[in-house]
Structure formats: structure tokens, C-alpha cells
Design goal:
This protein is of the alpha/beta class. The protein contains 10 helices and 8 strands. An 8-stranded mixed β-sheet has the order 3-4-5-2-6-7-1-8. A hairpin with a 4-residue loop joins strand 3 and strand 4. Helix 1 packs parallel to helix 2. The longest helix has 15 residues. It is globular.
């Protein structure tokens, strides 16, 4: 089936084609992050029968109202066998499955039991680092996905595991708005971070005027500079509201007695 999808901007194209295991697209509003994330997920689900994909967001109401709506708007209904909203499961006609997770209602033990091929996290900046770390450790756990024979014919050296079984591609895909430079996404992914993990893919994008009205874009530019930098330009950094001035009278002299008291309590 040809979905006839075209990329709206270079960032979408880069995310779609990257083969890095860990990948992130970052930007403000109106640049198609959720769209391209869902499109990549649909491509994987339809290309590889029995593929398992987790699509997650911090809150269920947001997952249902935004991410899920975008996904089902793109996926032809005739490809869906069943969709159980209560259990958070969608089954496709080729055996592929989507598991919908809202991360504010799961614990680490629950996450350790999941076995997906890939995971897509929308609004990833809302999630905790410890949850991210557990999800990252679960990527590629499902080995039941099928590699179509035409791909094996086209790529004779398709990768195999230690049991000589063909491996389906597995990714952790983050869709995020900018936050501070102390956020785990900035530390692990941003090219300006001294802690950036080697091999992690990161692409930034600004507000794409082609995806919305010119009037809305012009109104957005009239907001305060900090809002524009974050939600229009897609810039990461510390908010000025988080910089506190310490009054001199609140400072305590570091006497031996004070240090002893702090240590004992």
C-alpha cells in the first residue's frame, strides 16, 4: 500500500531515514514531530509482519487526544483488525501490534516485562529519566518480527543474531519540545552537551509556517522572547524564571559547628 506521504521539512526527512538506535527530533510547536514519528512507526509496522511497537506519552488523556488521533488519521482503517482502548492494544492485519502506554501509571517492574521491537515517546521531555532508562533497555526484546523475503533478496547481508535468526530494526524514538540544559534528553542527545552519547541521532526544527496559518505564526512571534525562543525557534536552555538571586542576609558562615550540625542531621 502506498501512503503517498511527503516530507514537510528537512528535519522530518532526517528522522525518518536515520538508522541510529536512539533518535530524537526536537522543536517548538507546529513542525510535524508527532506526524513524522507516527509515519516512521507505521512504516515499521507494515513492513515487518508481527512487529511490536510501543507508543507512549506521560498522560493518557494527552496520548488519546493527540498522538493516538494523529496515528489513526494516517493509518488506513482496513489495515486494523482490532483496537482495544481499555487494554491499550491495536492489532493489524499482518500480525503487527501497537501497545499504547501512558507512563504516569506504570512502574519500573511493569516496564521490565515488556518486549517491543521499537518504542516511540511523544512529548518525551515530560518523562522521568529512570523511566527512559528502563524503556531504553527493552528495545529489540521481541524476536518474532518477520523480515520479508524481498528485503532479504535485496540485502543478502541482512543482520542476524547469535542464533542465526534475522533481526528486525529496533529504535527508541523521542519527540520532544525543548527544556533546560539539565534535562536528560539534552544531556544525552544534544550536540552541545558534554555528556552526549556517541551515535545518538538528534535533529532540531523551528516552527514550520507551511504547516499552519501565517496569522497564527505572526501572533506567536509577538509573545515574550523566552516563549518565542522555546516554542518557535526550538532553542534549549535555562528559563530566566529559574534564575534566583540569593539575598546576602540569607547566607550562613561555614563554621565548624554549622558543618557538624549539617552532617549529623
Amino acid at each position: 500500500m502506498n501512503l503517498n506521504i511527503q516530507f514537510a521539512n528537512p528535519a522530518q526527512r532526517q528522522l525518518y531515514y536515520t538508522r541510529a538506535r536512539n533518535q530524537c527530533i526536537s522543536g517548538g510547536f507546529t513542525n510535524g514531530k508527532t506526524f513524522i514519528g507516527c509515519f516512521k512507526a507505521i512504516t515499521l509496522l507494515l513492513t515487518f509482519p508481527n512487529y511490536r511497537m510501543i507508543i507512549a506519552r506521560q498522560k493518557y488523556t494527552d496520548l488519546k487526544r493527540t498522538t493516538m488521533q494523529t496515528f489513526f488519521k494516517m493509518l488506513p482503517s482496513e489495515l486494523i483488525v482490532s483496537h482495544n482502548e481499555q487494554d491499550g492494544l491495536t492489532q493489524l492485519i499482518n500480525g503487527s501490534m501497537i501497545m499504547w502506554l501512558h507512563l504516569d501509571k506504570v512502574d519500573e517492574n511493569t516496564l521490565r516485562g515488556i518486549e517491543p521491537n521499537s518504542i516511540l515517546i511523544d512529548q518525551a521531555e515530560e518523562t522521568e529519566e529512570k523511566v527512559y532508562d528502563v524503556l531504553d533497555s527493552r528495545i529489540g526484546r521481541w524476536d518474532g518480527a518477520i523480515i520479508p523475503q524481498d528485503l532479504l533478496n535485496a540485502i543478502p547481508d541482512w543482520p542476524k543474531d547469535k542464533q542465526d535468526k534475522y533481526i528486525a530494526p529496533s529504535y527508541l524514538i523521542l519527540l520532544t519540545n525543548p527544556d533546560t540544559q539539565f534535562h536528560y534528553i539534552y544531556r544525552k542527545y544534544h550536540p552541545d552537551s558534554q555528556e552526549k552519547v556517541e551515535g545518538y541521532f538528534f535533529v532540531e526544527c523551528e516552527w514550520d509556517k507551511s504547516l499552519g496559518s501565517e496569522e497564527t505564526y505572526e501572533q506567536a512571534l509577538k509573545r515574550d522572547p523566552e516563549w518565542v525562543a522555546k516554542y518557535v525557534r526550538g532553542v534549549w536552555g535555562l528559563s530566566s524564571s529559574q534564575i534566583h538571586v540569593i539575598a546576602p542576609q540569607s547566607l550562613l558562615e561555614a563554621t565548624p559547628e554549622l558543618i557538624k550540625r549539617i552532617k549529623s542531621h
